[in-house]
# Entry
Amino acid sequence: MLQRKSYRQVREYMQPGDVIAFGGQSIFSRWAKFTTGSGVTHVAIVMENHQDTHPKDNVSLKVMESAWFRRKRGVMKNCLHKKVRTYKGNMWWLPLSAASRAIFEQNQEAFFEFMQKQDGKPYDIQQLFGAAIDVTDQHPILSRLTYNQENYNRWFCSELVAAALKTAGVVDGVNASETTPIDVCRFDIFENRYVQLKGKDKMIKGFNTQSADNWGQIA
# Structure
């Protein structure tokens, strides 16, 4: 169920492991929309909760993402309130379900350790394009061009988020390097209620309906 709330209204409820989804208009965003048929073009993952920051001082929660923004490319931490203020497009908050949250909390030490090691790694533009094209993944020859073997040396946005969720035990058997932004949003790991923070009201098609087990693997 989609709800409309401001960032200030929901900030205190956001927790590490929750996903922030975006729908933009950049070249990469338009490519993602074209190849995946979805309005979701980018994802990031929450790294703090409100107890780690100071709401009265307007200090923002941090998200980690792999992004290509002006001169910055690769994995970085960014202030969420700044992204809400400046992003041109749609934004949604996807909170983990109670079951997923329980698993995450059991593995959060591994999650934070993993994410710390990824900070600063370069952007993975090559696998970004491969992940978005699945029609030839089963082809004996063309699959070499479009099917991504899982690789953690470089990251595109949803690859990083999927690997983070896998490290936290929330998803299992997922090929992070074959996971697109809309794939992350469709994994059945979230609360049924999700919140649009910015942009014209738009539901995420297929939200929270896809089993995350063994996703992106070639049978």
Summary: The longest helix spans residues 108-118. Residues 132-146 have pLDDT under 50 and may be disordered. Residues 66 and 75 are 4 Å apart (CA to CA). The radius of gyration is 16 Å.
